[in-house]
Amino acid sequence: MDYLNSLFVEHSALQAIVVLSLISALGVMLGKIRVCGISLGITFVFFVGIMAGHAGLTIDGNMLFYAETFGLVLFVYALGLQVGPGFFSSMRTEGTKLITPSLCLLAVGTLAAIGLSYAFGIAMSDMSGILCGATTNTPALAAAQQTLEQMGIDGSEAALGCALTYPLGVVGVILAIIVLRRFFVRKCDIPAPDEKHKKNVFIASYRVTNPALFGRSIAEIADNSHNHFVISRMWHNGHVLIPMSEREIHENDVLLVITKPEEVDSLRMLFGEQEKKDWNGSDIDWNKIDSELISQRILVTRPEINGKKLSSLRLRNNYGINISRVYRSGVQLLATPGLVLQLGDRLTVVGEAADIKRVEKILGNAVQSLNEPNLVSVFIGMILGLMVGSIPLAVPGISLPVKLGLAGGPIIVGILIGTFGPRLHMVTYTTQSANMMLRALGLNLYLACLGLDAGAHFFETVVRPEGALWLAVGFVITFVPVVLVGIFAMRCMKLDFGSVTGLLCGSMANPMALNYANEITDGDNPSVAYATVYPVCMFLRVIIIQLVVMFFV
């Protein structure tokens, strides 16, 4: 008994590790259980923590605070690092169109919380937790608790409000998507089947029939055109050729072009005629298209290449190959001359086998060299994120300064380092599996600690008269704004249903609802929209919850 007592009851570093590991393990296993096709996923760790706290299980207060803080910082920084490389590029394309309804959802939900607080006499310190739970945003809860503590107010009630409304926050978004799909989705809101292939790049073939192009070089045509495109292959008199910059184009040449989806029609007018063949299917064997050239993906692993522009390598002129696409962080990019390469980029290279072998030595393609994570950038990034999060920002009209805090600072620094680090020759690459491990570990620690802390008084709150009121108010804050903004996005913004579901899930920080959206929607529009709006909304919610607490508590 003494042995078990030292493991689970007596406060020590060993006991804290055992308790948190046990809560996390049980939560992850139970989170895989599906009821009516819905699972809570990693969020179940939160509820296992609540049950453990209710059962009287505790750990040392300092250990609890450390593990909770470290878990949150690790999670949000790794998230920023992962979405950073494609964040600004997505913002320049569809970002504005997706961000607008996301901001509307954020504003409607916040105003609804403030109004319901006054309507039902709920203290704003409690409502801040209800709002965080209804929007499934635990980093915002951390910011709210920090602000309440700065004002000398106990933040435990906010944690209880979050714990109480969190489950309906998860389910409410899924129910809202079901209602939207059942009553408000029209045929025009669902993309045509071939549009699921239109990501950031689109592949098309054109037959040159425009007399203005006859006898002109590819470089001359590209320089005088405002379109963005890369010619991967060209066929002249039945022979396949590498489209070198100085190569001339003649009548009836066929060009295989990589471009952006919105540029397809304008390129048809430029070249003359678009062929009907669909080149965007995943089942195309590019090495069987012709017998003279092969296509291969090469991984950038040499540190010297990190941060260099594609044009500075002069691969096409020196080695007679062509680079058509760059695959980075789940996003396909056009291989334009000004594209800055990063470690971990996968380049689609077209050319003869011998030439591709030579290019492979230049770029590296040593997969094993990237398996060792670059922990220096992780720890330095977290330090910088905490420094940025601690900077006080003066806001007119309130006495206390606003801070980005433990959630806002690291995610912003993560996005900036993930985006601009390679240009400063910083090695910021982590493999997809390594990044997912960092995020999962951080989020597990944070949710386990949060649940353990709130569990001691959780069921007392549920049975109190205001418990049912908090649940009802939280569901209204979740469900009503999501349905209203979803209708607005489809009717007024003309967004397809897949993108709408993704932006709704991202705005509400709800990956569980995203899983459901992906199951009912063809293509990856929900995931792309989610990744676009999530960092912006996460950052804004962390700031806004602090302003709400300062102005209305």
Number of helices: 19
Q: Count the strands?
A: 9
Strand percentage: 5-15%
SSE order: HHHHHHHEHEEEHEEHEEEHHHHHHHHH
Q: Identify the overall geometry.
A: elongated
- Side by side, the strands of the main sheet go 3-2-4-1-5
Would you kindly provide a written description of the structure presented here, covering whatever features stand out?
By secondary structure, this protein is an alpha+beta fold. The protein has 2 domains: 2-192 and 373-552; 195-369, Alpha-Beta Plaits (2-Layer Sandwich). It has 19 helices and 9 strands. The chain has helices at 2-8, 13-30, 44-54, 61-120, 124-134, 138-150, 156-183, 218-223, 264-271, 315-319, 353-363, 375-389, 405-420, 432-455, 458-463, 465-491, 497-507, 511-520, 525-552; strands at residues 202-208, 229-236, 239-241, 254-259, 272-274, 294-299, 322-328, 331-334, 346-351. The strands form 2 sheets. The protein has a 5-stranded antiparallel β-sheet with strand order 3-2-4-1-5. A hairpin with a 2-residue loop joins strand 2 (229-236) and strand 3 (239-241). Helix 7 crosses helix 16 (465-491). The longest helix has 60 residues, at 61-120. It starts with a helix and ends with a helix. Mean pLDDT is 81; it is low at 193-198.
Keywords summarizing the entry:
alpha+beta; 19 helices; 5-stranded antiparallel sheet; 2 domains; Alpha-Beta Plaits; elongated; 4-stranded antiparallel sheet; single chain; 553 residues
